[in-house]
Every structure is written in structure tokens, then in C-alpha cells.
Prior knowledge:
- It is built from twelve helices and 18 strands.
- By secondary structure, it is α/β, with parallel strands linked by helices.
- It has two domains: 8-268 and 440-462, TIM Barrel (Alpha-Beta Barrel), CATH 3.20.20.70; 300-422, no CATH class.
- Helix 1 packs parallel to helix 2.
Amino acid sequence: xxxxxxxxxxxxxxxxxxxxxxxxxxxxxxxxxxxxxxxxxxxxxxxxxxxxxxxxxxxxxxxxxxxxxxxxxxxxxxxxxxxxxxxxxxxxxxxxxxxxxxxxxxxxxxxxxxxxxxxxxxxxxxxxxxxxxxxxxxxxxxxxxxxxxxxxxxxxxxxxxxxxxxxxxxxxxxxxxxxxxxxxxxxxxxxxxxxxxxxxxxxxxxxxxxxxxxxxxxxxxxxxxxxxxxxxxxxxxxxxxxxxxxxxxxxxxxxxxxxxxxxxxxxxxxxxxxxxxxxxxxxxxxxxxxxxxxxxxxxxxxxxxxxxxxxxxxxxxxxxxxxxxxxxxxxxxxxxxxxxxxxxxxxxxxxxxxxxxxxxxxxxxxxxxxxxxxxxxxxxxxxxxxxxxxxxxxxxxxxxxxxxxxxxxxxxxxxxxxxxxxxxxxxxxxxxxxxxxxxxxxxxxxxxxxxxxxxxxxxxxxxxxx
Length: 466
């Protein structure tokens, strides 16, 4: 890298402008984020269903005994608060007083405000910043300011930041520590693609970030840092961004590369899998029960979801137009109408063992095996309200605890699968989030012969430009 990477002011302290991206369901924890801060950067642990530990140091399984979704939701919130506090304490201890510690929360997670209040109250003085995305987190400014903590909204466009500023953030400008621009085509996990953006045609980041800086300058924020997130691998590839007066202060957020460190809590099987990925193995999909696009590794889990959507036909409850072919659904053999072509397809799927026809909110049927049907129904019944509202289970954190819509069997229980991949070796049948650059592990000489660095070694490598 030609230009030196000079410290910038983040959350009240000058630190290296390298930020650990916070990955949910305990994938970024106190150990990894504390080590990142100890290396004079910004460590970020996840406040989304964080692990808590027993006296022996073992992770406590998050088991739900409540009879209703509302009762299980209360258990989930309690787990999240306790886990977040423990992770903050661990990060603080590991940091040795260096760097900065941030917590990352998903605004659309169930009980987000309650969890954030609980963690910031229980870990006062240990957390320096809150990053928050997925949705429009208007209230994150007020909550953070109440605890004297900086806030960092995650946006994918200048338009989104403008809406947040106009509605709420202008009232709490002193605590706006920075703005995270997350590339909606390249970042891992949930992505902020809007209805006016084409998921198949990525746009370059520079003009979008320049527009964001212009918007921030208009609001009197020319020196507030922007974190570039998504698609960042080698800093030498971003040399023209550093000390660029058109962009102002820039920090670089790494979400995928910190997965492959000794402090990373993911399984060895997951780490080995990362080293084998090829270009195209990570792709955008829209199966998430949040309704957002997300970026994940192509494996058997996603192939099964693709199969569900492919085994799908539209139906009517009365003969309408071309829907004149009778078809019996369910144990009671209720009559619906398909097109003759779709009935032929449905009969082929049934003959192949996909005998269970499940209704979707879009007046379609998907055909799955009996085992798949049982798993879907069981997961829907066991819902604990991990999202503010969920397409898969129709949960919503409102008075009636429901969206009022039919549950969508084309999606999945995101809490179940993300807990499973984090706490097991199963990397084929669980959802594996990753940024689109994850394929570079296999060609980056730093990881030759399966080398797994410490966080300190990784940060030292990053600041060289590699």
C-alpha cells in the first residue's frame, strides 16, 4: 500500500481505521472483538443472541420452555441481554484498554430496543459504540445518547441516511460516531438492496459513498467517519480512498476475513470450508424470513430452499381462467384448481416423494417430502420471536403477536439454523452467511497451507495493504 494508514478519531479515541464487522448469533464475540481492539482497531461483538457461559466457561444452550410464543420471546430477550453483557465484559478484558469496543445489533431482531437497553445498562462503560442495521433504526440515536455511547447506523445509500437524519439523528448529532456504508451487493449476511436496485447488476461503491459524504457535509458532518463495509479484502485495492478529500475520513470494515482467525469462535469445519470456496459459491438470495436479500454460501441448505420454490404452482379455490384442473390437497383432500400443465408437474413431484402440498401467502402450493413438511411445521410451532416480524412463522412483536398473514413455508427458522452452524460442525445443512469475497481465502497467499492467523497477525497484515 502506497499511503500510510493513519489513526482517525472513532468513538472518542484515535485508533487504526480498521473495524471488525459484527456478525450475528455469537459469530463475533467478546474474544474476537477484544483481540481486535487490543490490536488498536475497533472490535465489534454481536448483540444478536449472544452466548452466555456457565461457571466452567461452557456456552449455555439457549433452550426455550415457554408454552406460548410470547413466553418464549421473553426467554429469548433474557438470554440476549445476559449474553450481551457477558460478551462486553469479555471484550473489555481482552482489549487491555486499547482500541474501541462496539456492539452490533439487528434493528429487526425481536426485542431490539429492550435488548440494547439491557446490555448498555448492564455493561456501562465497557461499550463505546453501537452499530445497527437491517431496517431503519430511527431510535438507535436516542438510546445510544442516553447511555453516552456513540452510534453508527448501517446504510446502503445516501437516501437512507437522509431519511434517518431528518427524522431523528439531527437531534442527537453529538453522538453520531460515524456512518457505515455497507455495499448491498458484496457484504455478507443481510443486505440493504432497495426496490430500485438490481441484485444482478452491482454498482461501484465510490460514487455511492461520495454521494453519502456530500449528504453528510450538507448536514454539517464533513469530518464524521464513513466506514466502508462489504467487498474489502486488500487495503491496497482501496488506496485512492485513503486521505481522499472528496470522501473525508474513511475506515474500513472487515466482516469475512476475521472469520478465519484463531480467536474466531466458529467451528474448525466452518474455517476449513472457507478455505475451499471458489468464486460464485457465495450468492444473493431472498429466502430470509426478514424479507431482506442476504448473501450466503451455496450449500445443501440453500439448495433445499431452491427446490421448495421450484416445486411450486399457483392455485385457485374455484375454476378461474386456465385454472380448471382439479387437485386434492392435504389429509382431507380439499379441492383446488391448477392449470393442466401445473397439475402434470404436481403429479410428477408427488410420484417422486414430494407428497406434501403446503400453502403459501401468495396463493401457491409448494411440494415437499413428509420429513420436510414435519420439520417446517415443527419449526413454525416452536417460534420464539427472534425477529420483530417473521415471514416464516407469522410472528410479530405486537399486541396480537402475529403479522396477520399466512406463514410462508418457502422460508426457514433463521434462529435455529444460525445457532446450529455456530455451535456444530454442520456446514452443509445450515445457513452459512459470507461476503462475496470469501472465495479469496483459497488464493490469498497469507492463508497458504491452511494457515489460520491470530487477530493480531491479521491486523498487522491488513495495515501493510495485504
